[in-house]
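Journal club side-thread
Mid-discussion, someone asked how the predicted structure for our own chain would compare to the paper's figures. Pasting it here so we can look after the session.
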Amino acid sequence: MLASVFVVSGVNAVRNPAKFALRAKKVTDQVGPTLQQIHPKIPTDAETLVRLNGAVHVVGGLAMLTPARRLGAAALAVSLVPTTIAGHPYWELDEPVERGQHRTHFLKNLGLMGGLILAVLDNDGKPGLPWRARHAADVAERSVRRAASNTKSKARVARKSAAVARRLPS
């Protein structure tokens, strides 16, 4: 259910990038030089980047239906950052009603991002790596204590046996 909004909006962006490119231009103009430094053949025009972001939304949303759901959720969370900044810059708007609507959509996207982050961290009810590491350390510590205790007990028994043996008539 979480992925459905991304699949639908991604299809819209892939089909009609011009509709979103005007709003995205502020962000794509800032990101473009960095992309060019990474690789000179990466496109930097707003429509192409909107189309690429839409494709990430479609693929990431569909990936959430597969065993690669954590990877899909991570891709969606990352791609949601520029989408939200470009699409809902409520801080730049003066008209109160429009500003309020964009703030609501901005906060909605933050909520979606929270859900995506939870999906990334979900282990299907299995303990995560930090818990497993702590658990292994606890088991090792108990084992060391038990071994040390057993060693002390054996030494104590040996001393008592030796003392009893000394008292026996030869």
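Post-session note: Residues 8 and 58 are 7 Å apart (CA to CA).
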